[in-house]
Each structure stands twice: as structure tokens, then as C-alpha cells.
Amino acid sequence: MNIQIDDVQVNSIVEQLEYYFSDSNLLKDKYMNKQVHHSNDGWIGIDILLTFNKLHLMLEKVLNEHIKAKQNDISVKDVLITILLHNRFKESQLLVANDEANEIKRRHPFIASDDLIRTVDEKTIYIEPVPENMTNEELIALFSELGSIENVSIPRFPDKRAKGFAFIEFKEKENAINAITSIRSNKEKYKLRTLSKIDWLNKKKQIVDAYQHQHHEQHHEVVDQGGYHYNNNRRNNDNFKNSNNNNNSGENNNESIGKRILKIDNIPLTTNKPFLWKQLDQFFHTVFLDYHLGGGYAVLRFKSMQERDSAQEMVKSGKVIIDEQVVTTSLLTDHEFKTHMNKSSRYQHQKQQEHDNEVRMQQYEEDQRKLKSQKNKEKKKRKKEKQKNKIQQNNNNNNDNTTDNKKDNSIVNFDSDNEDEEMTDCTTKDNSNNHKRSFTETLDEKDIVSNDINKSQRI
Q: Residue 232 in contact with residue 217, Cβ under 8 Å?
């Protein structure tokens, strides 16, 4: 099928295909990485590639031009096959197609490693602030004069809003170094702040580590909606009440919230919220700060419209400098205003819950102290009674021992008397027996004498 495609369009589509299979994209694109990893020797069917929105739109643009030329019998898939058979694609140093031109793969397999990640980061620069409506193509056009660009990435929030910064990956590390030098030396032309991605990652890590360390400290200083500095202790409740009073006083002045808020832009994307609070306190006092790390802008709420106007004039004068960068101001969009109001409402509800929880916690701790005190008293009372009973028992035991000793002495005396009596009885009995023996012996002697006399007479 003969499809005539402009060389510029062919080149753009081939570059888009190369981007899908590039090291930088496969390192962060989980879906594409999975497709390559689970494919047959790295081959990816063009049916999968046709599901990618940007590629599909580029092919549709070519297709529509041919439909206008009355070539109605072609499809988006036919356009892609034609490009894969084009000499420009065959000359690609990264990709190759099969003979049927229905599958493509990398010429060299992709292997993720720490060295590869560092190599990609060394070729990448970080820039800010990037306008919300700026596109990748505009950034490529702006920086292509500084070197051949491999990839442009504009990070976005879940609602698709740009975060205000971008990463530009060059094909060579030297191009990235030269780009940083050029941007810094031509501030009027670029009006950007830049540093290497390696330095950006290191700085971000330092900020995150410092914030986490500060957040976990017991006396971490934060700022509540009323603008009062407080530590994470029971003073929170007093400050929360004060913040409510401030908010109520502002509402009683019949000033709408819309007239008391101010948007400031051009905030360095590595600036965290606690640091931003302290910096702004040097210029004016706000009662609420709506800011996300990396967002590039913040929404401030003031106690009165006069304070807001005064702060706006100060910002416009260029006197408000955050982290060596002059901030600017702009009008809030309807979406930003609604987002801010919703966040403010959620924050107020959260603070109310925290306040209620703190009160409940204080009551719980007080109840626990009372319960613990009561238990200690009961414990002491039981211990005292136990000691008293022990003393009483010891006294009773001593009395029992004394009585037993007396009884033992009495028994001993009684036994001694019995022994004396028995000895006396024995002596008496012995004397009686002796007397009896003596009397018997006397009788016997008399009988002998009598017998002797009788015998003598007979003779």
C-alpha cells in the first residue's frame, strides 16, 4: 500500500517510538517495562503500541491527511507499518522491526541497574518555574539549541495540573552541564532556576530527612490555622481556640474569604512548608497557608482585606524573596479557589477532631491518674493491714510459746515430785522388808535355841 508521509511526521513518530523504549522511560514506566520484560525476547506487537494515546494521535493526524486525499481504505495500523518500513526507522540505533513490521524491539536488551539510573540522572537537568500551560514541545524547542534532547518530563498532580517544574534529559552528559551554565548566565532570556538532577535529588533528600527529623521531635514547631506557633503538647487546645476566634473575627467584619486570600507563585519547588512559613513571617502575617512541596505556588489567607492588599503590594514590589528567589502573585482560578476552600474546610474539621481528641485524651489521662491513685491507696492499705496482722500473729505466737513453757515447767516439777515420792516409797519398803527379815531371823534363832535346850534336856 502506497502511503506518502511527510519526513517531519515520520521523524516525530520514530522519535516517539524510541522514547517508549528508551532507558529513561523504561526506568519509570511500569507498564512499558512490564511489557518488555514479559515479551517474547523483547518483541512488542504494534497493537499494544497503538493503545498509547500520544502515538495514536500522531498517527491519526497522518491518517486524516490521507483521508482528505481520498485514500479512505487505510487505517492507523497501516500508517504505523508504513513508518516501520521507512528508511528513517531502519536507521534507528535503538529499535528494529521484524520482517512483517508488526513487532518491534530494542536492538540491545534493557537491563536496569544503579549505574544506568545514575547515567540517566547525570544527563538530566531540573528547571523551575515552568508555566502550567507549557507543553513538552515548547520545552524541546526552547532547549534544543543547548544540545540534543532525549526526553522531557513535566510532573503533574493527580488532577493533571503541572507541578511547576520539569526535567530535561539530554543525550550526552556534557550537553546537560553546558545547559546549566547557559541558563544561569542568561537569566533574562530563560528566567529559570536550574540545577542537575543529581544535585536536585540530594537537596530533596536533605530537605525530606530534615523535615522527618523535625516532625518526629517532641517539640516540633508547627503553625495552626490561626497562625499561632505551638509545640505538640496541651497548648494546642488554647491555640486552636485562638485560631477559631481569629477566624470568627474575620468573618464578623463581613469580608468574604475571596477578598482575604492571595496566591503567590515562583516558589522554589524544593522549599518545604515549615521553611516557607518562617520566610513569609519576615514580610507579613497570614492566618492560613495552603502549600504542597513541589507545587510552585501557595495560597495565603489574611485576617483582613487590608492586610491582604498590603501583602500583595509587597509581593508586586519584588521584596518578597523565598530561598533566593523573588516570588510573584497571580489571580486564583475557580478550580484553585474551590480546592483551597475544600482544603480549608477539611483542615478546620481536622483541627476540631484533634481538639476533641486532645480533650478526650486529657480526660482519659486524668481518669487513669485517679484510678492509679486509688489503686495505690488500696495497695498501701492492704499492705498496712497485712503488716498489722503479721505483728498480731507474731504476738500471739509469742504468748503461746510463753504458756507452753510454763506448762513444760509445771510438768517437769510434777515429775520431779513423783520421783521423790517413789524414792521415799522405795526406801520405806526397803526398811520394812529389812525389819521383816530381822524379825524372822530372830524367830529362827529362838527356834534354834529352843530346840537345842530341848535336846539337852532329853539327854
A: no
Domain 222-332 has CATH 3.30.70.330: yes
Determine the CATH number of domain 7-106.
1.10.10.10
Asked if 3 and 81 touch (Cβ cutoff 8 Å), the reply is: no
Read off the pLDDT of each residue in 447-457 and give the average, rounded to a whole number: 49
Average pLDDT over residues 366-374: 86
Cα 305 from Cα 309, distance rounded (Å): 6
Residue intervals of the chain classified under CATH 1.10.10.10 are 7-106
Eight-class DSSP state of 40: B
In which residue ranges of the chain is CATH 3.30.70.330 found?
A: 114-216, 222-332
Write down the CATH number for the domain with range 114-216: 3.30.70.330
**What residue type is 282 in one-letter code?**
Q
The per-residue pLDDT for range 303-321, each reduced to its tens digit, is 888 888 888 888 888 888 8
Residue 249: is its pLDDT beyond 50? no
Q: Contact 100/22 with Cβ under 8 angstroms?
A: no
- Amino acid occupying residue 292: H
